[in-house]
Write a structure and sequence with these properties.
12 helices
């Protein structure tokens, strides 16, 4: 399982598992507290692995700055924009917009990196994006909102899309995905740490002891997903890797049906979304093998 598409799907499994642990942790912690602790665990684990497998001196080069920028953009600023969007317009309106990330990533890759995905690959991407929008848009939208606040989830989607392209661009000048992951994770932690410090008296930081085991598990799963995703971007086009990595929502759905029956319900809408995503994955994998 060393091909970029296979690595991308493996990364989706890691991120999907992380989402399940985060969902359980949110019963005992606020979103901001859960995010910063999970990111901190991920960063520590990735940095330890990097220190054990490669000379740390290789991080002190201009060639790694692309990955620092990527980590600063996402999940750093992009996650902040996503949380702001959810707060202002609600999950039901914000998350379908964020789910357009792989589509935006492909458009940026075509424009900036010169990628030329096949027609069948684009069909697969559309299926995955459509399934993601359907999967995240099933909740009831409540409360008044301003249309201009849609800019926040859109900025989040664009941030995640830019990160994927920066990763791919960075590997044109740098070849160690583990050190690259460490640099990106440290940048993300710096952004999240700054946000947490600014919000320390806002009442948005709440955590109980019971949350820590779930957050530690989430950080471990996300570290595995992060490292695997970087290896996928090292060898594969954004138009292939980004849509496949984004299927982590489907992995989380399958795991939720098994382990979070008390918190999550599987509806017909969810089943249709899953079928659309699976179809998209099949088409993408098939187009790559042709």
């Amino acid at each position: 399982m060393s091909s970029p598409p296979a690595l991308a799907l493996l990364a989706a499994v890691g991120f999907g598992c992380a989402g399940i642990f985060i969902r359980r942790a949110l019963s005992y912690a606020s979103p901001l507290a859960a995010a910063i602790i999970s990111v901190a665990v991920t960063t520590v684990l990735v940095c330890l692995l990097a220190a054990a497998t490669a000379p740390v001196s290789q991080m002190f080069t201009w060639r790694i700055m692309a990955f620092v920028a990527a980590g600063f953009v996402a999940p750093g600023l992009a996650r902040l924009a996503m949380f702001t969007g959810i707060h202002r317009i609600g999950v039901a309106r914000a998350m379908p917009v964020v789910s357009t990330t792989p589509g935006l990533a492909v458009l940026v890759a075509i424009a900036a990196l010169g990628e030329r995905p096949s027609a069948w690959l684009l069909v697969g991407v559309i299926c995955i994006v459509g399934g993601g929008v359907l999967l995240t848009g099933g909740g009831k939208a409540e409360g008044a909102w301003r249309s201009r606040d849609l800019a926040f989830p859109l900025l989040a989607a664009l941030g995640f899309a830019l990160r994927d392209n920066i990763f791919r661009l960075g590997f044109r000048h740098y070849d160690d995905p583990t050190l690259a992951a460490a640099a990106a994770a440290l940048a993300s932690l710096a952004v999240m740490g700054a946000v947490t410090f600014l919000q320390r008296r806002s009442g948005h930081i709440r955590i109980e002891r019971a949350a820590f085991p779930f957050l530690a598990a989430s950080g471990l799963a996300e570290a595995c997903g992060y490292l695997t995703a970087l290896r996928a971007f090292q060898g594969g086009d954004v138009s292939v890797v980004s849509p496949l990595v984004s299927t982590y929502g489907l992995v989380a759905l399958a795991l939720a049906a098994l382990f979070l029956r008390d918190l999550e319900r599987v509806s017909l809408r969810v089943v249709l979304a899953a079928a659309l995503i699976v179809s998209g994955v099949f088409v993408v994998m098939r187009s790559v093998s042709l």
